Amino acid sequence: MTSDGSDLRHVHPTLDADSPLFGLGYASPIERRDFVHVDDDGATAESATVAEETPVALVYNGRPHVVMMCTPADIEDFALGFTLTEEIVASAGEVESLRAARFSQGIEVEIAIPEAAAEALRNRGRSLVGRTGCGLCGVTTIDDALRPGRTVAARGRFEPDAIFRAGDELPERQHFNERTGAVHAAGWATPDGHVVLAREDVGRHNALDKLIGAMVRAGIDPADGFAVVTSRASYELVQKCAVAGIALLAAISLPTGLAVRMAEASGITLAALLRGRSVNVYSHAERLRL
């Protein structure tokens, strides 16, 4: 169950290597590719796995909204997480159905939402392709990009050891990245730092959307733990955490200035440059037992 009482665990299963889509020739999340390795000793034919990225079209009430470049796995988690964190609907209970299907050279996800929300979305305007590394492609105004922030209320405190433990455990759940070295991950950790859920994608914001969607479908309360990501702490990650109600975000790399300001304003504890047993806490350090 979600915090608003809705239940989205009935939606279609996420895409994986056993999905009928892949039986139709659809790309899997990782592929083995041949290449020629060249060095001072000459050239040799080799092969290795690479991370796949695929266009995913999100269609709301029959109207195309945006095309995002994603790793083709956990697509419905992504669609649900994106719908919530972009505030297309106010709560998970407003997502009436999700259906992913192979379409042309990618995946199309049909999402049914209340007509009032669909009309507001049409007025918002977003039409370009969202490239892998960017969470803003297709947003047409600054107001759309910098939406009014939400405030995450303090609930419980965390030990620094929990953050260190989550940073150590997340790589164990990076199955795509282990084989490709080119995929971001977002993980959900319990208050003591054990990573119990993770999602991967070539886009850092996509990975977080997938994680948030998976949390909703699993009935996980965002107040009962924290998120850890393998990327820099950019502002859109903080914004998505604020919408989802995640009070602590830990990132492997550094934050941007806008991310810090947004974290300060929204009540989020932003911990970054998480390396081994060290981390920099840029906002709301009072949530940690120091």
Chain-wise SSE layout:
Blueprint: H1 20-23, E1 30-39, E2 42-51, E3 54-60, E4 63-70, H2 75-85, E5 97-103, E6 106-112, H3 115-124, E7 129-130, H4 142-145, H5 160-169, H6 175-180, E8 184-189, E9 195-201, H7 204-218, E10 226-229, H8 235-244, E11 248-251, H9 257-266, E12 269-275, E13 278-283
Parallel strand pairs: 3-6, 4-7, 10-11, 11-12
Antiparallel strand pairs: 1-2, 3-4, 5-6, 8-9, 8-10, 12-13
Helix pairs in contact: 2-7, 7-8, 8-9
In words, what does this structure look like?
With 290 residues, the protein is α/β, with parallel strands linked by helices. The strands form three sheets. A six-stranded mixed β-sheet has the order 9-8-10-11-12-13. Helix 2 crosses helix 7, helix 7 runs parallel beside helix 8 and helix 8 runs parallel beside helix 9. The longest helix is centred in the last third of the chain and has 15 residues. The chain is flat. 44% of the residues are buried. The N terminus is likely disordered.
